[in-house]
Write a structure and sequence with these properties.
Length: 410
């Protein structure tokens, strides 16, 4: 497929990031937009499926809606060994299935008149003087004044910007199972059927992250694991940890069906744009602390869409200020803070115990992060409370470390 025109915008990737950028551009009156995706929809996507943070505002801001079944989770249970605490969300986090959610966004964007071509892969790109040339799978070609990389962790646009620089990625694994596979009671107490579970117990065995269990519509449960790249862990080792730490919940991970994928954490200094190019969503970097990416992508899409509309209007297509605009936005400030917290909490070596004990045993810290996950509070604006928690921890750190050790020993 060779298209002789030079389009205003080509968006590579039709997931939440690409769909939201297309919807934002439509609001700006930009009509010559083509969205490409290598897959046909509906297509599966490994993900926890939690619509966290400011997702309601992000959807509304680009005139999209949640139209698929979801489970409203009003609480989160945090665990480490025998320790367990449940925090109530200021508003429920809705858990969706990506196979349904992403397809619904594609259809909503198509209904606006945006051209979306599925089953079309982008293999290479080259920036010329007045356009970007895209080489498509199968030998086709396409050109655009501006190209948006919304094509996930393996983004061809990201690779172009970074020179395909090698670094250790976050590792995630997930599986979706019938809810009947999960017991209703854990050794530490009751497990609510509509509560999200974040279990950090495996950190005592080398995981730098957590195991999750999320309720899913249709009487299913989404289970998975996130590992931060402060240490190298192979896929078989991570799957073994996931399998082991699901057992207390009565969940038997099947021999097949678990899906793993690498993702890159957000870094405020990483290249996210160049003349005629910019990235959004997973291609620009996920939340390094939680691994969350859906709300992040849709919030970034507003910044990207505004920058593209302005560039088309003025002819200034360098996007020199795009990285700074992302960083100054609420989503950028939260990502930068979470990156710093992740480096402390998930660091290699024994110091992680100091920071995990702060998170678990200071009730105000858990409440703050519950509000951050629910989108009722901007954690980056709570510096006084965070400093207060650090001061309290200075007096209680030794006792909390002992409690942390005892929680695993029991």
């Amino acid at each position: 497929m060779t298209d002789p025109r030079v389009h205003d915008v080509v968006i590579v990737g039709a997931g939440p990031a690409g769909a939201a950028v297309a919807a934002r551009l439509h609001q700006h009156g930009v009509r010559d937009v083509v969205v490409l995706d290598r897959y046909d929809f509906p297509r599966d996507k490994p993900c926890g499926g939690g619509l966290t943070g400011h997702i309601d505002e992000a959807l509304a801001a680009v005139d999209l809606q949640l139209t698929v079944p979801s489970v409203a989770s009003p609480a989160a249970t945090v665990r480490f060994g025998s320790f367990e605490r449940t925090v109530t969300m200021g508003r429920p986090v809705r858990v969706i299935r990506r196979i349904e959610f992403d397809a619904s966004l594609v259809e909503q964007v198509r209904a606006k008149g945006v051209e979306i071509r599925t089953g079309v892969a982008v293999d290479e790109l080259a920036v010329a003087g007045d356009h970007v040339a895209l080489k498509l799978g199968g030998g086709g070609q396409l050109a655009a004044k501006i190209v948006v990389g919304a094509d996930g962790a393996a983004s061809v646009v990201r690779k172009h910007l970074t020179g395909n620089a090698k670094a250790l990625p976050h590792r995630l694994f997930m599986a979706e199972l019938p809810a009947a596979a999960a017991a209703t009671v854990t050794p530490a107490g009751a497990l609510r059927g509509d509560a999200m579970v974040y279990d950090f117990t495996a950190m005592a065995e080398g995981l730098r992250g957590y195991v999750w269990l999320f309720p899913v519509a249709g009487d299913r449960v989404n289970v998975g694991l996130m590992h931060y790249p402060s240490s190298r862990r192979g896929g078989p080792e991570l799957l073994a940890l996931l399998r082991k730490h699901l057992e207390p919940y009565g969940v038997a991970l099947p021999a097949k069906g678990s899906r793993g994928w690498p993702v890159w954490g957000y870094h405020p200094s990483a290249p996210v744009s160049a003349p005629r190019l910019l990235t959004v969503g997973d291609a620009a970097g996920i939340d390094g602390l939680t691994g969350e990416g859906i709300a992040v992508a849709m919030e970034q899409a507003q910044v990207a869409g505004d920058a593209i509309a302005r560039a088309l209007s003025t002819g200034e297509v360098g996007f020199a200020g795009y990285r700074r605009a992302l960083r100054k936005a609420v989503v950028g400030r939260e990502l930068a803070l979470d990156r710093h917290l992740a480096r402390l909490l998930y660091q290699h070596g024994p110091a992680w115990q100091r920071w995990l004990s702060l998170v678990l045993f200071d009730p105000d810290v858990l409440e703050m992060y519950a509000a951050r996950v629910a989108g009722t509070e901007v954690l980056a604006d709570q510096k006084a409370r965070l400093w207060g928690a650090l001061v309290r921890h200075g007096f209680a750190a030794r006792r909390r470390r002992r409690e942390l050790t005892a929680a695993v020993a029991r």
